[in-house]
Each structure stands twice: as structure tokens, then as C-alpha cells.
Design a protein that fits this description.
By secondary structure, this protein is an alpha/beta fold. The protein has a seven-stranded mixed beta sheet with strand order 3-2-1-4-5-6-7, with helices on both faces. It contains 19 helices and seven strands.
């Protein structure tokens, strides 16, 4: 009996769909799950008749794999990964490969690479995006860790990955340590930002302009054939058109309290460690936190007075302004995300290819869009680009979008409609292009109360001064 090309541990939806995806590309797959009934159910269900074999114990599972063994863990991030890795050690041989396909924190992946390599094995931590459908039909895959293992994993990963328009697989080797999971974390942070921006556009149309779900659906459907063409715009249009059993829009019946799994928080925490302004993504995370205070907000709405939220203006002009604000803010979000990637690469010694990262996100993942093709072009033209907003194309698009962006932010704020992502994006844009910020006063204040020193405009950078302000 022939050995399996790869083994998957964990048969929840993501693991099961990934096994089916790999098998559909011509590979033989072994599967194992701690709850062995899931193995039986899978083999008798979706895997029936396919080149997938089941195991009912770890030793049996490992014995089914060809050398070097490729063991992919599709289990919950955290201690479960560490426990499983330790359980595998006695069963593996030198050069075998353990792959963590879960949503692990990048620091955990970096630690595991060192630990697993010290035992004579290889470890790959791979960020993946695309949800259940992506796992089955083609996700975006972002692997890193033991580079010596990549040639043995690449044929499988690039076969199952989503493909860009030009046929390129949305999977490239990212780098050492936990860089793959870090890139995945930034992807998720940008995803938070994209979703929040879309929600703010929806809020302006719904409450500011009094538009129905059907009317807003048509706006998003139209936008999906232009600059904003993306998976999230597409599904937003579909959501707004979806009717409940009574024929009314389901969206109008969903509770406005959002959840989160933590990757957005990780991105913001990393930005604070690196000293990189990730303001839009930060506001997107905090907006979810604020939304969870549903009962408090209900009370506050009866206590704290504000404007009526109604916006006056010509329909076509307002929709055009919302479009421009959404597009310009999206540029800022990605600019901040890539700035954090650059800063972290310097900190950890990663040699990241930002054009390749944009390519990996062009298909399969949640933030896939035509927009990412423009980002790839920007980094292909200037791999050392310090900020995406300085690219000629994006600088031009920001210039063109500015008037509408400013108008819609102004009218939304005046109407009392919260737009934390759009407004913080505009503030970042203005701060980044401002040649003289009031930080000179801030430095004087710090020196006044804490003798923290300051630099002077009439002296070279790096020379610091202190003034006795009370004398």
C-alpha cells in the first residue's frame, strides 16, 4: 500500500476541507483526530471514495506517511499545538516536518521553530486565509520557519493555493521564524480595517441618507466593478440583498454587537511595540469593543443628546464622496499595515518581499481585491518604498480622492455619525504630509516636567538639549 504524501491532524471544518483540497490536487492524504469518531464520519462522508486514509492513533497515523513525513496540525492555537508537537517527537525521524496551519501568534511559531529544530526535525508555521471556502477551493498561504523543509512542502502548498489572475499561486516562502504568521496577522488587521470602513460607508448611507438595504446593495454591487472591486465589497452587496423568511432584509434584524478572535489586537499590540502608527486598524478593533457595549449604548442614547444623523445633499454627490473616502482610507490602511511589516522585518531580521506578500493576498484570502495588484506594482518598482502613500499611483489617487474624503468626513461628523476609521485615516494622512507638527511643544512639555531633553532645528539631529524652564 502506498504511503501518504501528507498527514493532517484535526478534522474540524478547516482541517477537513484542507484534506479534501489536497486530495483533489492528486496527493494522498492521511487524517487523524483526537476524537476518532470524527475520522470515521469523515471517511464515510465527504472523504468517501477519495484517496484519503484514516488513522485511529498517532503511531498508526505517522506510519502511513512517506519520508520526509509532512504532518500538518489543524488544531486550536495555543497549548494544544505544543502538546501535539511533543507527542509527535518520539514517533518522527530526523528531517521530518511539522506544519502548524492554525492561527498561531507569530512569537509562538518562532519559539517552536527553534525547539523543533533542536530535536532534529523541521517546523513550518503557515498563516492561511480564505475561511472554509478557501480551505476547500484554494486559500492564501503564508509559510515560514525551517527553510530547509520548504522544497518538500512547496509542491503541495502551491498546488492547493488560490491562483492570481495571471495563474501565480498565492503562496510564496515568507521567511524565517514566525514571519509567515506575522504576515497573516497583518492581513487580519487590514481585514479588520476594510470591514470597518465598509460598515462606516453603510452607516452613512443607512442613517445619514435614509437608504434601504436594497438601495445600499445596488451601490455596493456597482462599486464591485471599479476601484473597490474586492471580496468584501462583493459579499457586502450579497448580504444587503439577502431576505429573511418573511421577505424583509435579514441585515436589519442582526444585533449590532461584533465579536473578534484576537488577531486584530495582536496587530495593534505589535504596532505599539514597534512605534508604528496603526491608527485605522486600532480604531477598527476599538469599534468592535465599543459595539459589544450594546446595553450601555442603548442607555447612553437616551441620555447623551446629539445631532439627528440626517445628511442633506445631492444623492449622487454623496455616494461619490463616500466612495472616495472609502478608497482613500483603504490606501491609508494598507500603507500602515506595510509600514508595520517593514519595521518588524528590521527588528527580527526578516528579508520580506512586499510585492510577493501583496501577490499572496490577491486570491483566496478575505482581503483579496484588484487593489492588491496596484500594491504589487508599487513594490516591484521600488522594493524599498518607505510608505505606500509615496508611490506615484497611490499619491495621485489620494490627491484625486481628497475633496470627497474631506467632505464626507465633515458631514458625517456634523451629523453625529461615528466614522472612526475614515476620520483616523484622514488624520494620519494629514499628519504624515505635515512638514511641521506641534510635537515641538510636546517635547518642550516633556523636558519641562521630566528633563527628557529635546533637539533643536538649528542643530544637527542627535544633539540633545535641556532647559531649566522655571529659572
Amino acid at each position: 500500500m502506498s504511503k501518504s504524501d501528507i498527514g493532517i491532524i484535526g478534522l474540524a471544518v478547516m482541517g477537513a476541507n484542507l484534506a479534501l483540497n489536497i486530495e483533489s490536487r492528486g496527493f494522498k492524504v492521511s487524517v487523524f483526530n483526537r476524537t476518532t469518531q470524527k475520522v470515521t464520519d469523515f471517511l464515510n462522508g465527504h472523504a468517501y471514495g477519495k484517496n484519503i486514509v484514516g488513522a485511529f492513533g498517532l503511531e498508526e497515523f505517522v506510519s502511513q506517511l512517506s519520508l520526509p513525513r509532512r504532518v500538518m496540525l489543524m488544531v486550536k492555537a495555543g497549548s494544544a499545538v505544543d502538546e501535539l508537537v511533543e507527542s509527535l517527537f518520539p514517533l518522527l525521524e530526523h528531517g521530518d516536518i511539522i506544519i502548524d496551519g492554525g492561527n498561531s501568534h507569530y512569537a509562538d511559531t518562532a519559539r517552536r521553530v527553534i525547539h523543533v529544530e533542536s530535536k532534529g526535525f523541521h517546523f513550518i508555521g503557515t498563516g492561511g486565509s480564505g475561511g472554509e471556502e478557501g480551505a476547500l477551493k484554494g486559500p492564501s498561504i503564508m509559510p515560514s520557519g525551517s527553510e530547509a523543509a520548504w522544497p518538500f512542502v512547496m509542491p503541495i502548498f502551491q498546488a492547493i493555493a488560490a491562483k492570481a489572475v495571471d495563474g501565480s499561486p498565492c503562496c510564496k516562502w515568507v521567511g524565517p521564524g514566525g514571519s509567515g504568521h506575522f504576515v497573516k496577522m497583518i492581513h487580519n488587521g487590514i481585514e479588520y480595517g476594510d470591514m470597518q470602513l465598509i460598515c462606516e460607508a453603510y452607516h452613512i448611507m443607512r442613517d445619514g441618507m435614509g437608504m434601504s438595504a436594497d438601495e445600499i446593495h445596488h451601490v455596493f454591487a456597482k462599486w464591485n466593478f471599479g476601484l473597490l472591486d474586492s471580496y468584501l465589497i462583493e459579499i457586502t452587496s450579497n448580504i444587503l440583498a439577502f431576505k429573511d423568511t418573511d421577505g424583509l432584509p435579514l441585515i436589519d434584524k442582526i444585533l449590532d454587537a461584533a465579536g473578534q478572535k484576537g488577531s486584530g489586537k495582536w496587530a495593534v499590540a505589535s504596532s505599539l511595540e514597534e512605534g508604528v502608527a496603526l491608527t485605522l486598524i486600532g480604531e477598527s478593533v476599538f469599534s468592535r469593543c465599543l459595539s459589544s457595549l450594546k446595553e450601555e449604548r442603548e442607555t447612553a442614547g437616551n441620555v447623551l443628546a446629539g445631532p439627528s444623523m440626517k445628511i442633506d445633499g445631492e444623492y449622487g454627490s454623496l455616494i461619490s464622496d463616500i466612495h472616495d473616502a472609502l478608497y482613500a482610507s483603504k490606501i491609508v490602511s494598507y500603507a500602515q499595515g506595510f509600514a508595520l511589516l517593514r519595521a518588524s522585518a528590521l527588528t527580527h531580521g526578516w528579508d520580506l518581499d512586499y510585492g510577493d506578500i501583496a501577490l499572496m493576498w490577491r486570491g483566496g484570502c478575505i482581503i483579496r481585491s484588484v487593489f492588491l495588484g496596484d500594491i504589487k506594482k508599487a513594490f516591484d518598482e521600488d522594493p524599498c518604498l518607505p510608505n505606500l502613500m509615496l508611490d506615484g499611483y497611490f499619491a495621485k489617487m489620494l490627491l484625486n480622492s481628497q475633496p470627497g474624503w474631506r467632505r464626507i468626513c465633515a458631514v458625517a461628523i456634523k451629523a453625529g455619525i461615528p466614522i472612526p476609521a475614515m476620520s483616523s485615516a484622514l488624520a494620519y494622512f494629514d499628519g504624515y504630509r505635515c512638514k511641521s507638527l506641534p510635537a515641538n511643544l510636546l517635547q518642550a512639555q516633556r523636558d519641562y516636567f521630566g528633563a527628557h531633553l529635546y533637539e533643536r532645528l538649528d542643530s544637527p539631529r542627535g544633539i540633545f538639549f535641556h532647559t531649566n524652564w522655571i529659572a
